[in-house]
Specification:
By secondary structure, this protein is of the alpha/beta class. It comes from Amycolatopsis dongchuanensis.
């Protein structure tokens, strides 16, 4: 991707009223870029940005990402306002902590609608623009839990694992059009992700999983002590894109994320080595 050096870039960012998305919008506006920011509450977004941020280049958009037509209209308003579209950041999402059997059908649908269907709606609306202009960048914010899974995070991991597969395929499809793709995989960041306002919990639990109840309480107590600095996280994402979008597909954020991912790779290697001699047993004979 050739990042514009002669004009402000236009960013379309989802999930911007809090956390990493909010910090990203704040830094982009201070850079002087144009930002279309989707949120469930435009008022909360503008209020959270504060008086110290010039919002003249901000287009706050209340969008239900599950609604394909609403997304299409939001992208159209963005291009009409700013004249183009350079970077798309799919950041919207939330946590869910429960045993697999404690999740309801509605829980599953809600999570996948946001983390998978919503991303797909945004991509369908924005990729034709970037293809036609022969340039752009897509940033899909996943998690280190898109690479590895832990008990209690099954539903959240299901959404992030799906996002990882989607993004890997996408990178191979659009590279020839000058469109870069980055998967961002944060660890624990000091946002409100682990507060009761952001972390969804099951409506009913079973007493079969006391360890998960303890883990839930421990995670809630982590709030305010997480390793990741959202200011540095947003800086890293912007720097990756502005710097030309080069480098590997995955952008791990946080030493904890790197440690979790490394452990997963080592476990997978052990699994591959253990099955190396038996894997070919199901092939047709030569």
């Amino acid at each position: 991707m050739s990042f514009p050096a002669d004009r402000p870039a236009t960013w379309f960012v989802t999930g911007t009223s809090r956390g990493l998305g909010l910090e990203l919008v704040r830094q982009l506006l201070r850079r002087g870029d144009h930002v279309a920011a989707t949120t469930r509450s435009r008022e909360r977004l503008v209020s959270a940005l504060g008086d110290g941020v010039d919002t003249a280049r901000l287009l706050p958009l209340r969008v239900d990402l599950r609604d394909e037509e609403e997304v299409r209209q939001a992208v159209q308003r963005t291009t009409e306002r700013f004249g183009g579209l350079d970077v798309v950041v799919n950041n919207a999402g939330y946590g869910f902590l429960a045993a697999v059997e404690e999740t309801t059908a509605r829980d599953v649908r809600d999570m996948l609608d946001v983390q998978v269907v919503g991303v797909w709606n945004v991509l369908r609306a924005t990729l034709p623009i970037q293809r036609r202009q022969r340039g752009g960048h897509v940033v899909n914010v996943s998690s280190v839990l898109g690479l590895t899974a832990m008990p209690g995070w099954g539903l959240y991991c299901a959404g992030k694992f799906a996002l990882e597969g989607l993004t890997e395929a996408l990178a191979g499809e659009v590279g020839g059009f000058g469109v870069g793709v980055t998967l961002v995989e944060p660890g624990y960041f000091r946002t409100d992700f682990l507060t009761r306002d952001s972390l969804a919990l099951p409506t009913e639990t079973t007493d079969a999983y006391p360890a998960l109840r303890e883990m839930t309480e421990n995670h809630l107590k982590l709030q305010g002590t997480q390793l990741g600095d959202p200011v540095k996280g947003a800086e890293a994402i912007i720097g990756r894109v502005v710097g030309g979008g080069g480098g590997p597909l995955r952008q791990l954020l946080g030493s904890d994320a790197h440690a979790y991912a490394t452990a997963k790779v080592e476990a997978l290697r052990e699994n591959l080595d253990a099955t190396a001699e038996t894997a070919g047993a199901t092939d047709f004979a030569a």
